[in-house]
Amino acid sequence: MVLALLVGLLKANHMQETDRIKVAIAGVNGRMGRASLTPLLTDGAFELVGAFGRPGAKYIGCDISELTDVTADNSHLGLPVCQSFEAMLELGKPDVILDFMMADASFECAKKALDNGIRPVIGTSGLSKEHIQELAVLAAEKNLGAMVIPNFSIGAVLMMEFARQASKFYSNAEIVEMHHTKKVDAPSGTAMHTLSKMAASDKKFNVNEINEHELLPHARGAEHSSGVRVHSLRLPGLISHQDVIFGSDGELLTIRHDSFNTNCFLKGIALSVKAVMNISELKVGLETILKL
After folding, report:
1. What is the pTM of this model?
2. N or C: which end of the chain has fewer CB within 10 A?
3. For residue 12, is pLDDT > 70?
4. Where in the chain are the domains?
C-alpha cells in the first residue's frame, strides 16, 4: 500500500515537471528581462531553461541567478547568460522565448524561434507593420502561437480599451506619453497601440479650425493619420506613463495610466507565456487573451 502510494507520488511529480512550460529570455540583461525572472522562477507553471543578451553586454557568461534575488534559496541556477540565440539553443530547446530586445533584433529572433518550433512572446516596442505581418504569416505556416505585447500591464490595457470606447464620442483627442530617458523609440509602443485602437473607426480627429503656424517644428506633436496628435516626453524620474485627453465643448476627459515600477508587468508576462501555448497564430496585445 505504502509502496503504491510512493509510486503514485513519483509519477505525479514527473507529470508536473514535464507539463511545465520551458521558457528562455532574450534580452535578459535589460530592465524588463531581469524583471521577468520573478514570475518565471516563482510560478510553478514555468521552467527557465535559458537566456541570452547581445555580445559584450553586462552579465554575459554569468549565472542567471546574478540578475535576480528571487533565487535566495537556490542561489546558483546553473544557467549561463549566453551571447546568442544559437548558444542558448545548445543548452536546451524552450517552448517559449520571451523577448525584450530592440525591435530589429526581436524580429530576427522571432523568425528563428518560429523556424525552430519555438513560440515567441515579444515585449519589444517599435516593430513595424511589415514586421508583424511577416511574423503572422510565418506563425500561421508553422501552426504556432506567437504574441506581440506592447504593454504587459493590465491597467495599461484597460486604459487603451477605455480610450477606444471614448473615441467613439469625441472628435478631438491628443496623447501624451512619458518615459525614462533610456527609452529609444518614440512614440512608445503603448501610444502606437492606443492610436491603432482609436483609429479603427476611421474617424478623423482634430479637424483644423485655423491654419496653425509652428514656431518650432513639431511643437504640436506628431500627427497620426487619424489626426490624433502624440507628444513624447523623456525625463529622469519617469518610468512609463500615458494620458489620453479628449476635449469637447465645456469638458475634458483624461484617461491616465502610471507605472511606478516593473511589478505591474509581471502578471501580464505570466498570462502571455501561458496563453501562447494554446494558440496557433500571431496575436497583438494583451487584451486578446483577457475577457474585456
Report:
1. 0.84
2. N
3. no
4. 2-148+263-289, 154-260
Rounded Cα–Cα distance for residues 127 and 15 (Å): 38
Q: What is the CATH number of domain 2-148+263-289?
A: 3.40.50.720
Catalytic residues: 179, 183
Report, as an integer, the average pLDDT of 26-45: 93
Residues 96-111 as b/e (b if ≥16 CB within 10 A, e otherwise) read bbbbbbebeebbebbe
| DSSP letter, residue 289 | G
Grid coordinates belonging to 102: 530592440
CATH 2.40.110.20 fits 154-260, yes or no: no
- Collapse the DSSP code of 36 into the 3-class scheme (helix H, G, I; strand E, B; otherwise coil) and give the result: coil
Spatial CA neighbour of 183 closest among 131, 228, 126: 126
The rounded distance, in Å, linking the Cα atoms of 43 and 182 is 30
Q: In the chain, what are the helix, strand and coil shares in percent, each to the nearest 5?
A: 40, 20, 40
- Between helix 103-115 and helix 129-142 the angle, nearest 10°, is 10
In angstroms, how far is the first alpha carbon of the chain from the final one? 49
CA gap 282, 285 in Å, rounded: 10
Q: Give per-residue pLDDT as tens, 69-123.
A: 776 454 557 889 999 999 999 989 999 999 999 999 999 999 999 999 999 999 9
Q: Which residues of 223-246 are buried (b: 16+ CB within 10 A; e: fewer)?
A: ebebbbbbbbeeeeebebbbbbbb
